[in-house]
Amino acid sequence: MADNKEEAFRKVYEANSKKIFHLCYGYTGDDDAANDLLQETFLKVWQNLHKFRNQALISTWIYRIAVNTCLTYLRSEKRQAKDELTPAIAETKREEFSEKNEQVALLYKCISKLEESERIIITLVLDEVPYPEIADVSGISEGNLRVKIHRIKQKLTELYNHYERL
């Protein structure tokens, strides 16, 4: 039985870890913190795998665990406002990145300026998670989700253009 659980967990981890890392990075803007939150998320998945009842997709269940883990992390650590934290991180990262990666770093900097719920949604969109699953994770209807995504994209475009002019 233990071997089956380990094999199932390995498959779940391989299928979901990249997307969960991106989600965590969207919250923190920091590789180390995102990796810590990724590990913490999958520790919780391992500990609770027996409780998963297939009432939703397992990836949706994992996203919910990751979102809650990230929110708990941000609240318990009483993190500085993203405005103070992210520019320094983005500046450090920018030195490491090629020009194309610089644009990605700027995109993540802009994402970090969004509200928590918007960060979750746009990160899932960027990871190409299907809309029904995003709606399930975020707790809103698919119709509202489409409107919200449109508004988030507009907001991101404005932020991106603002930073590109600087």
Automatic annotation (TrEMBL):
List residues of the RNA polymerase sigma-70 region domain. 13-79
UniProt keyword terms in alphabetical order:
Sigma factor, Transcription, Transcription regulation
InterPro entries, per the entry: RNA_pol_sigma-70-like (IPR039425), RNA_pol_sigma-70_dom (IPR014284), RNA_pol_sigma70_r2 (IPR007627), RNA_pol_sigma70_r4_t2 (IPR013249), RNA_pol_sigma_r2 (IPR013325), RNA_pol_sigma_r3/r4-like (IPR013324), WH-like_DNA-bd_sf (IPR036388)
Ranges of residues in domain RNA polymerase sigma factor 70 region 4 type: 106-156
- Listed GO molecular functions? DNA binding; sigma factor activity
Matching Gene3D superfamilies: 1.10.1740.10, Winged helix-like DNA-binding domain superfamily/Winged helix DNA-binding domain (1.10.10.10)
What's a Pfam family in this record? Sigma70_r2
Gene Ontology annotations of biological process type: DNA-templated transcription initiation
Q: Does the keyword tRNA processing apply?
A: no
Q: Which PANTHER family match?
A: RNA POLYMERASE ECF-TYPE SIGMA FACTO, RNA POLYMERASE ECF-TYPE SIGMA FACTOR
NCBIfam families on file:
sigma70-ECF
The similarity annotation says: Belongs to the sigma-70 factor family. ECF subfamily.
User: Any idea what this protein is called?
Assistant: RNA polymerase subunit sigma-24
